[in-house]
Design a protein that fits this description.
alpha/beta, seven-stranded parallel β-sheet, Rossmann fold, 2 domains, globular, 10 strands, single chain
Length: about 290
Amino acid sequence: ELTIHDRTSASDVVERCKDAEVILTNKTPVTKDMINQLPSLKFISVLATGYNIVDVVAAREKNIAVSNVPGYGTASVVQLTFAMMLEHYNKVSLHNDAVRSGDWVNSKDFSFTKAPLHELQGKTIGIIGFGSIGRLVCDVATVFGMHTLAYSRTRTSQNRINFEWAELETLLSKSDVITIHCPLTDKTKGLINKSTLALMKKSAFLINTARGPIINENDLAEALNQEIIAGAAVDVLSQEPPLPENPLLTANNCIITPHIAWATVEARRRLMNASVENVRSFKEGKAVNVVN
């Protein structure tokens, strides 16, 4: 028997799940207090790669397995990362808007630009976090002719051209593009802040498609408005949906998308298929993708 709720507030979780053996959730938290009130619960399937919404320690104490779906959105996240990068350097929206406003029709020349355009070739990209997404970003950057600096808590031998490992401070100070692909942990929360932003080039472009709290949003807005860095693009914020007063909503040169990096049709299909397999495997006594 399957019961579906489009949205569930925290206050409704226990009542709605009181008889459930399996919970499937994405953004609805499952806390220790909730787990302790759900005696029938045996398995939690997180419909995402990140699983910080579930108290996995409390689940383990109750012998409740928690599974996630790793890797389903890798290609999609990488694609948005480069869409943001290319928007910054090619100003596609700016020129499309100009054409639709009549600027080309009224131009005396065959071509015009509204802002300087730049190539990716020859630029240095700094990748923070070098899991499957970070590695694929590196692959694509190499095709564009970029040099890669990578920072990760673990370092392995990499048979790559134009690649080197770097300490965070070095990466921040030498990169033209800095893109974040690490998980949100106690160590990465607020990783990008006033001090680390001050290390970046004045021409640097910062991208975050990972988790919102990795960036101190007030500090980033200040850095953008004071032209400490040239621009930023974020697909994630510290609170989603954001509050109207979020400083990035009015910051200069800041591209914001509503957490869509994961949301291609292809990625969502992989997510659903993998989630079905997670539940099936659990029911057969051989749970897969267990994170606790």
